[in-house]
Amino acid sequence: MLLYAQHITPRLQYIVDFIGKELFDEPITITKNKNEFIASHDPKINYSEQEFSEQEFFIRSTPLLFEAGIRQRSINCFELNYYKVFFQTNGDLPFDIFAAGFYLLSRYEEYLPHLKDEYGRYAHTNSLAFKENFLQIPLINIWIEELKKSLQNKFPQIIFRHNSFRFIPTYDIDMAYSYLHKGWKRSLGGLVRSVVNGEWSIANERINVLRRKKNDPFDAYEWLDSLHLYCRVKPYYFFLVAREQKGYDKNISPSEPALQELIEYHASGNFVGIHPSWQSGDDKNLLKEEIEWLEYISDKKIVHSRQHYVRFTLPETYNQLIAAGIQKDFSMGYGSINGFRASVASSFYWYDLYNEKQTTLQIFPFCFMDANSFYEQKYTAQQAMEELLNYYRIIKKINGLMITIWHNNFLGTGKSFSGWKEVYEVFLKEEVYWDM
Question: Quick one: which H or E segment has residue 153?
Answer without folding.
Answer: helix 139-154
